[in-house]
Amino acid sequence: MMNSDISTTINSIEFAQKALEIHDTIRVSQLSRLQDLLESTDDVLTCQVIGRVAQENHSELNLKVHGLLSLTCQRCLEPFEFVLNIDTIYSLVPNEEAIPPAEDEDDEKEYLVADANMRVLDLIEDEILLALPLAPKHPIEKCSASDEFNELKKPSPFAVLANFKAASTSGNG
User: Domain extents for the chain?
Assistant: First the structure.
């Protein structure tokens, strides 16, 4: 069975046990916590939530979110497109105590506390926020600030003078 509305509320365990799916597109303007981080809120993302029962009868949700986000480069302050590609599998657990301690946790596995009233849009927004870089930047070769960056890498004329002065003082002694 497939539901097509990503803004729905689901019972996460029932959703997984019945192997339900949601496929939808969303406008980033629907994601209120992202607004201040984006250059534009016109972008559209494709989203999927797929429920399933895995090994040992564990319920899982697979979240996939793909698209482009318009961010601001922190180096040149120009807009650029960030490729968003989220594909996360959550193992549903009954409560926070059921999540293994960080040192015992499998790095490949994500845990999510089962919720009878889980807002799918909130889960998507949480994952997008985690996927964004702390300081978004163009690759240096595509950044308009790269000329300024390369200028900064050139030796300072004062450093050249200091080297000249150090060489002339050591030669006199």
Answer: 2-138, 139-173
